[in-house]
Write a structure and sequence with these properties.
CATH topology: Deoxyuridine 5'-Triphosphate Nucleotidohydrolase, Chain A
Structural class: mainly beta
Strand content: 35-45%
Order of helices and strands: EEEEEEHEEEEE
Number of domains: 1
Strand order of the largest sheet: 2-11-6-8
CATH class: Mainly Beta
Helix content: under 10%
Number of strands: 11
Distance between the termini: 39 Å
Number of helices: 1
CATH architecture: Distorted Sandwich
Length: about 150
């Protein structure tokens, strides 16, 4: 089933999300800023995209991921690792970028700064229980499987 993601431009110079290739999973999100924004080493800046979104189902979320090129070439990533945009959020999508490098990084208007994937979400009912099923791993934590 094909889904529709409605996008509203909140600013005239906003760029609609788009895929770089037909096989791209993520849709690029672009900065929508009036002036260049410098992110110093170790600094976090919230960068607006100038868009809001409305998925056609509440059984999904929009997940925001870093762009691999910005991360590998410039040390620019998301401060929250992966952003979650709930299906009922209608405000502007903003991207918290962090500079992990030792050099200033400049964000310019229209620059592709993150990628967004619309994904299904399972919305379970919570059931409190006194016991959980036993497994081979049980409560073994980090490294308990030999890795």
């Amino acid at each position: 089933m094909n889904h529709i993601l409605k996008i509203k431009k909140l600013k005239e110079n906003a760029v609609l999300p788009g895929r770089a290739t037909s096989g791209s999973a993520g849709m690029d999100l672009s900065a929508c800023i009036d002036n260049d924004t410098v992110i110093a080493p170790g600094e976090i800046k919230l960068i607006p995209t100038g868009i809001a979104a409305a998925p056609d189902t509440d059984q999904c979320a929009l997940l925001i991921y870093p762009r691999s090129g910005l991360a590998s070439k410039h040390g620019i990533s998301l401060a929250n690792c992966v952003g979650v945009v709930d299906s009922d959020y209608r405000g502007e999508i903003k991207i918290p970028l962090i500079n992990h490098s030792d050099k200033n990084f400049t964000v310019t208007n229209g620059m592709r700064i993150a990628q967004m994937i619309m994904t299904p979400v399972i919305l379970p009912e919570i059931s409190e229980v006194n016991e959980l099923d036993e497994t081979d791993r049980n409560s073994g934590g980090f490294g308990s499987t030999g890795q």
